[in-house]
Amino acid sequence: MHRSLLYQLYPLYAVAILVAVATLILAASHLFREAFYAEKEAELTNSVTLVVNALGAESLEGRTDAQSLVTALIRGTTNRLTLIAGDGTVLADSDADPPTMENHLERPEVRGALADGFGTDVRISATTGENSMYVATLVRDETGSPVAVARIAASITRIDARSQDVIRVLVIAGAIVVATTALFAGLVIARVHRPLRAIRTGADRYAGGDLRHRITVGRAPAEVLQIAETLNAMAGQLSETIGRITTQRNELEAVLGAMVEGVIVVAGDRTIRSLNEAAAGMFGVSRTEIDRHATILGTLRNTELDAIAEEVMATGHPVEATITLYRKHAISLQVHGTALASDSDSGVLLVLNDITRLKRLEDVRRDFVANVSHELKTPITTILGFVETLREGALHEPESAERFLAIAHSNAERLSLIVEDLLSLSRLESLETEAPVEECTIRDIVDKAVESCIRSAEQNRITVERGHSGPAVVNVNRTLVEQALINLVNNAIKFSPEGSVVRIDTVVRGDELTIAVKDHGYGIPRRDLPRIFERFYRVDQARSRALGGTGLGLAIVKHIAIAHRGEVTVESVEGRGSTFTLRIPGGKPDAE
Ligand code: ADP
Question: Which residue has its alpha carbon closest to ligand 1 atom 20?
């Protein structure tokens, strides 16, 4: 871990200050000592010069009073005077007895004096045991020849003591300087360090996503203040940009979520980058299952879709195809794959359209056309056949001609019936809103219907019973309801054995008119019940045709119910009979 600025800078500062102050102290103390020594040396030089002057040009050798002479010359001073012969023998000394003293020829000051006329030295005196300064000079006779060396020595312990005092003062002053400087350096560093710490904390919070935080640095150097302001501005801009991006993303999510079409975005590495609610619904997956590793094969489990995505990626051209999903029911999807132009990633956008209903409608339409053609073909072929026979000569055989014409006529009637029913159906289907209603009496409707069927009922010795409960007047489309009732009663008569009973029950309760037609006929097999209201659907084709049915009667009933926002249902047990129930809401007449 990196150490903080304070701990990195501060020791360096401290060491630098210490070294500077110590060097200064050393230099100063050295200079002081040198100055003291130089002063002392000058003083001693003066003294020794005085002594030499006082000695004059007298020869010193062999003088018996030499000892008292030096003592007299030096009296009253703290200095020591020594006279030394040219060979180093001590002639006289103010502090010691010369015979006891060793030869002084090798003393540095003596050697200096003998060589250059003047010499000095500082050392511990062998005689006094103190640190002393020696200054020696040559004593010459009147001819100028050297006769001896005069040497003055003085203790410099006091000078040393003064030097020590100076050093002590310097050290104390230095310590004060070091302490103050260290303190100020610390304050200066802290002044930079505190705002930097605030900046670091702020940057950490930005990194953690808290872009509303603002860095405050208080009194800080201009550069640091600028960094803080720049960071604050950056956070503001970032927050604004993120806000804008989030809004855009939410809008996009909302649009994709509201779309009926499924939308899947596949990345270049074939993983699913996004998928909307509609697409998830189509494949029966939850959007939470779509993680970073989800693929079309792994998660949606569809090889066809994967192949489309791959083709788009490989060619870069749009691909359109229809695929089928086998879920609870087969779902037909029209897939449109387009390459997503991006430099870094050759992704694919897949838009899925559920065309199951469209396809079913198309199938129904195709079947219907085929059925209609088939239904029309039989009577037309029959008519054409008999007309041809008549033209070829049968016309001249009155008996045959009559029969053939009757057959042609009945087929033409059948054709007319089919066309009429088709027209009724098409009219019902083209009703844009509900059928227009009028006030009518239920009794009239039922009378009219029974009247239309009474002939075939009588032919089959079938009794038609009727019952009613509730108000007598309803608001319905009279013609349509009559038509529906006729179709239901006709079927009941057609599909019942001779002598059985058909019952019509009408009930008006609350807002609803219910018409139930019950027979005790052959009934409808359970497996046929769901398809019984489809056009041209018959349980038994041959019987229906023989009975003159078009296969459109129940389809018309269903559409009449729809035109009234109602419904028709059937309950039937094979061999026991059927009950068709038509429910029409809004059957109650208006208050006026
Ligand atoms: P159709 O003209 O053949 O009667 P519908 O659409 O009226 O055509 O009826 C379709 C088929 O439903 C009939 O062919 C018949 O097989 C069956 N069906 C309708 N009503 C009855 C009923 N009351 N009893 C038994 N079968 C019925």
Answer: 491
Question: Which amino acid residue places its CA nearest to atom 8 of ligand 1?
Answer: 551
Q: Pocket residues for ligand 1 (CB within 6 Å)?
A: 487, 491-492, 495, 519, 521-524, 532, 537-540, 544, 549-555, 578
Give the distance from CA 374 to its chain's centroid: 62
Torsions phi, psi for 559 (to 5 deg): -70, -30
CA of 269 to the centre of ligand 1 (A): 59
Burial pattern 51-79, b for ≥16 Cβ within 10 A else e, equals bbeebeeeebeeeeebbebbeebbeeeeb
Cβ atoms of 575 and 522 within 8 Å: the answer is yes
Q: How many CB atoms lie within 10 A of CB 245?
A: 10
CATH number at residue 405: 1.10.287.130
| Cα gap 257→265, rounded to integer Å | 14
Kindly report the protein residue whose alpha carbon is nearest to atom 23 of ligand 1.
492
66 with 134, same domain? yes
Domain containing residue 520: CATH number: 3.30.565.10
579 in the same domain as 462: yes
Say yes or no: 277 and 406 in one domain: no
Residue 103 domain boundaries? 56-155
Residue of 491, 524, 571 to mutate, ligand 1, most atoms within 8 A of C-beta? 491
Helix (H, G, I), strand (E, B) or coil at 331: strand
Q: Per the structure, how many domains does the chain have?
A: 4
Ligand 1: which of 544, 552, 580, 582 to mutate, judged by most atoms within 8 Å of the beta carbon? 544
pTM assigned to the model = 0.52
CA atoms within 13 A on the CB side of 543: 9
- From first to last of the 592 residues of the chain, give the pLDDT tens digit: 567 766 777 888 888 888 998 999 999 989 988 999 999 999 999 988 888 888 765 556 566 777 888 888 888 888 889 989 888 888 888 888 888 888 888 899 999 998 888 999 999 887 778 889 999 998 887 777 788 899 999 988 888 898 899 889 989 998 998 889 888 888 887 888 888 888 999 999 999 988 889 998 888 888 888 999 999 999 999 999 999 999 999 999 899 999 999 999 999 888 998 999 999 999 999 988 888 888 998 888 999 999 999 999 989 899 999 999 988 888 999 999 999 876 567 789 999 999 999 998 998 889 889 989 988 998 999 999 999 988 888 888 888 888 889 999 999 998 998 999 999 888 888 876 777 888 889 999 999 999 999 999 999 999 999 999 999 898 899 999 999 999 999 999 999 999 999 999 999 988 789 999 999 999 999 999 999 999 888 888 888 877 878 889 999 999 999 999 899 999 999 999 999 999 998 654 444 3
Spacing, Cα 233 to ligand 1 middle (Å): 82
Give the domain CATH number at 332.
Answer: 3.30.450.20
The alpha carbon of 174 and the centre of ligand 1 are apart by a number of angstroms equal to 124
In a domain, 163, yes or no: no
- DSSP lists the bridge partners of residue 155 as 132
Ligand 1 nearest atom to the CA of residue 523, by list position = 25
Among protein residues, the one with the nearest Cα to ligand 1's atom 19 is 491
Q: Domain ends where: 402, 427, 452?
A: 427
